[in-house]
Amino acid sequence: MAVSLSTARWMAPAAFLFNFAAQQYGMLSSPNMKDINDANLSFFSPQPYFIAGFFFPQQIFQIAYMYKLWRLDSKRSEDESRELEQMVDYAPYFTVGNLCIAVWMIFWNSAQLKAAHVFVTINTFSQLYYMIAKLKPMNRRSIGSVLTHIVVKTFAGIGVLDFLHNGSVAFFKDHPATVPVKVLTGLGFAAASAMSDWIFGACLVYDLVAMSVGQSGNWRGLLGAYAAGSAAIVAAKNWLR
Asked: 208, 221, 129, 126: which is closest to 165 by C-alpha?
């Protein structure tokens, strides 16, 4: 999926603006995205304002990433050339992510949840793939590297919540969490937390808190306990590294 710097510079903002427009449609249309959410609940449904609370600062980091993509010049110095390399390499995945979320919104607001889940799945697994297989170690002295890590990992982190949420309401609407769901959720998040850095690990904890607040009864308490356990695993793993 390699692209040139010039292509990355128009492709990423175009996808971001399309996604931003789709989000406005989702919030201002009738029924809006929250109306669809409230009519379609399941065992992974989060408190909806947690998603909005995540995406606002995440979009600020996306804007900063695009700003650096435009400001850096590979011809100016070798350092800037190296800084741009990872940013340009990620641009196609950044574009796919924004396009998928935009199209997801259109299907979501039409209550076509199974179709919406296709685009959630593409986004989530493309971001996870890039994070695991292609993202180079963070260079803390490079703003471009730091921004790329934050955008990739927050995209992947909220993508996990999107995948679980949309999948549960598309295929298991109004279902309670079964014992296998509870066990696999705990094991899955514990394993992911044990392999996470601070950024992605914090996103996983946030996902669990969002789902906990959106649920009720014993399942709510168990998700809260999973969030505390994941936080402890992430902290221990990164402090001991």
From this structure: 208
Ramachandran region, residue 174 (left: φ > 0; alpha: ψ -120 to 50; beta: rest)? left
Cβ atoms of 190 and 230 closer than 8 Å: yes
Q: Do 133 and 146 meet the contact criterion of CB atoms below 8 Å apart?
A: no
CA distance 220 to 230: 15
Which region holds residue 178: left if phi is over 0, alpha if psi is between -120 and 50, else beta? beta
Cβ atoms within 10 Å, residue 136 = 12
> Does the predicted model carry a pTM greater than 0.90?
yes
Ramachandran class of 49: left when φ > 0, alpha when ψ lies in -120 to 50, beta otherwise: alpha
Tell me the pLDDT tens digit for each residue of 15-32: 999 999 999 999 899 899
CA distances from 113 to 41, 48, 65, 158, 162 (A): 12, 16, 31, 18, 12
8 Å CB contact between 113 and 41: no
Question: Which segments of the chain does DSSP mark as H helices, in order?
Answer: 5-28, 33-39, 48-71, 78-109, 113-129, 143-171, 179-194, 198-214, 217-239
